Inverse folding.
């Protein structure tokens, strides 16, 4: 147990030290241990125009992916639960497919069809549907779990019985009850997008992860600092998620959502 | 009364006897299915389509075979080896950690901390993770230097991020938590009453594990192995940031996609991807089956 905690903490500490302390390892010793700690490496990175562009792109991609994912999956999941219970096994199989086709193979496929759809792939935002695919196992599972915890049929019947159309039912009866699942999906998707490197790298896009990697050449400290920041941001997202899901339901939900964290693209 | 019951018994619902009406509800799945087709199925199928071409352009499996020869074969062997090794390490350490977390009674917050941390760590990004390990164990790494101060040169002893031990070290960072997450429910399913029964019948700890515990956990453990294997085999970002060796299949594929290819060898490159998909499909298929078996024990 102790070994494990050390194993998990040390790399993070080492990265933090490297990015925040301006002393090269060679000259590091007991006497220099407390020297020159500063945020200058990181703040310098913030000043780069390329960084701001990359960050902007990543944020846009994350937002777009979350919105489209929810827009596609919430109605689909509700539809399946209401009208097509027998399709559930099939859909579950489909949501596992993105594991079987690893990101690097997916991007190989994208390269194959690239000449045919250049008009689409020219936009940086074309990464969004592929990110949706990558996040699919997590997001669908989240939403599905949320729906299963509801009494869907009763809610829908009651709402429709009171005269609401589908839109109102969705907006005022179902979505508020699915808040936890929706938030889980959103957070997980954001984490995936902020960490996605494979597809962006091969397709030569400038997202936050690819920028961080590339920045290592000219400014190692800055890039390590950025990596640390990404880590901290993702961890906070997950911590927030934990708190939110635990507040609503028992531990089963946290485990199932976190369990859906079978490594995605972020490797 | 008699007549009525007979009459009721003879009445058969026409729907039950005949065909079920066509279910138009499947149309509702159209957006989802279309999305998947466009952005998942078509790229994947294209990969296979490209890999079934011979060097002269005709359809054939020559390229698929070529993808398993020479340097490619070495790459596959290396990748499968280190993925399996990393998976084993992950399974053993992860299962032990899960067991400790599940059965520890003091301190009480231990299990929650382990679960939450595992949830985060299992999803840890490729770039940040790689950088963290570079900072720790790279040539200029903190730990490298500390160990060096004791007179032991890590790199001269053969350590490196492009070796099996090196990769195992890094990959364990997300493999172990993943295993913990998968195994905790399974361990929870081991009822204490079984343990008590075994002891009552005169069995030792070893007997319990050999006859009850491990057989029940076996599907989960094997499934975990497959999952970790698939995870490690398909990882790209972490490896890419750590090393540029061409012995890792995913990196090799990336080099090919980046234009590092001889003329006419297109199909071989895509065959690499196809073989990756096939290996993943087999692993995940087996994992799925094992998980279904493991879930039997978790429904109490």
């Amino acid at each position: 147990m102790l070994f494990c905690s050390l194993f998990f903490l040390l790399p993070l500490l080492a990265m933090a030290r490297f990015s925040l302390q301006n002393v090269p390892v060679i000259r590091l010793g007991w006497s220099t241990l407390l020297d020159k700690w500063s945020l200058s490496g990181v703040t310098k990175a913030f000043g780069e125009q390329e960084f701001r562009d990359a960050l902007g792109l990543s944020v846009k991609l994350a937002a777009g992916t979350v919105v489209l994912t929810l827009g596609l999956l919430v109605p689909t999941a509700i539809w399946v639960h209401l009208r097509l219970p027998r399709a559930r096994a099939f859909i579950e199989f489909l949501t596992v497919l993105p594991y079987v086709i690893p990101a690097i193979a997916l991007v190989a496929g994208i390269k194959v069809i690239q000449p045919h759809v250049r008009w689409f792939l020219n936009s940086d935002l074309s990464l969004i549907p592929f990110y949706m695919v990558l996040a699919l196992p997590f997001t669908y599972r989240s939403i599905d779990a949320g729906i299963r915890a509801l009494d869907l049929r009763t809610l829908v019947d009651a709402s429709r019985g009171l005269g609401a159309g589908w839109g109102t039912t969705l907006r005022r009866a179902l979505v508020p009850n699915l808040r936890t699942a929706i938030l889980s999906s959103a957070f997980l998707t954001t984490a995936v997008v902020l960490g996605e490197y494979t597809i962006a790298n091969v397709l030569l896009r400038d997202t936050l992860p690819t920028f961080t990697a590339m920045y290592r050449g000219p400014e190692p400290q800055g890039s390590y600092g950025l990596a640390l920041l990404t880590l901290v941001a993702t961890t906070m997202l997950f911590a927030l998620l934990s708190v939110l899901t635990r507040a609503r339901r028992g531990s089963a939900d946290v485990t199932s959502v976190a369990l859906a964290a079978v490594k995605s693209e972020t490797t | 009364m008699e007549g009525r019951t007979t009459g009721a018994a003879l009445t058969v619902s026409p729907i039950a006897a005949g065909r079920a009406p066509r279910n138009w509800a499947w149309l509702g799945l159209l957006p989802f299915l279309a999305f998947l087709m466009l952005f998942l199925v078509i790229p994947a199928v294209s990969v296979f389509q490209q890999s079934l071409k011979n060097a002269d352009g005709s359809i054939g499996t020559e390229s698929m075979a070529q993808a398993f020869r020479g340097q490619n074969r070495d790459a596959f062997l290396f990748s499968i080896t280190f993925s399996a090794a990393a998976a084993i390490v992950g399974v053993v350490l992860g299962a032990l950690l899960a067991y400790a977390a599940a059965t520890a009674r003091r301190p009480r917050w231990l299990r929650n901390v382990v679960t939450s941390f595992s949830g985060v760590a299992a999803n840890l990004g490729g770039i940040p993770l790689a950088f963290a390990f570079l900072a720790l164990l790279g040539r200029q790494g903190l730990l490298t230097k500390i160990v060096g101060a004791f007179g032991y040169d890590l790199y001269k002893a053969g350590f490196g991020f492009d070796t099996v031990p090196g990769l195992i070290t890094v990959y364990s960072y997300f493999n172990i938590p993943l295993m913990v997450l998968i195994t905790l429910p399974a361990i929870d399913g081991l009822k204490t009453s079984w343990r008590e029964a075994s002891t009552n019948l005169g069995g030792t700890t070893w007997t319990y594990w050999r006859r009850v515990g491990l057989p029940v956990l076996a599907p989960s453990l094997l499934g975990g192995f497959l999952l970790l294997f698939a995870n490690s085999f398909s990882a790209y970002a972490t490896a890419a940031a750590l090393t540029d060796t061409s012995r890792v299949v995913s990196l090799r594929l990336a080099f090919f996609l980046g234009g590092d290819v001889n003329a006419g060898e297109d199909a071989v490159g895509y065959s690499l991807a196809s073989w990756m998909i096939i290996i993943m499909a087999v692993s995940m298929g087996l994992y799925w089956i094992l998980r279904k078996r493991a879930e039997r024990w978790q429904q109490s």
Residues 61-298 of chain B form a domain with the MetI-like fold fold (CATH 1.10.3720.10). Confidence is low (pLDDT under 50) at residues 1-13 of chain B. Chain B touches chain A through 85 residues (CB under 8 Å).
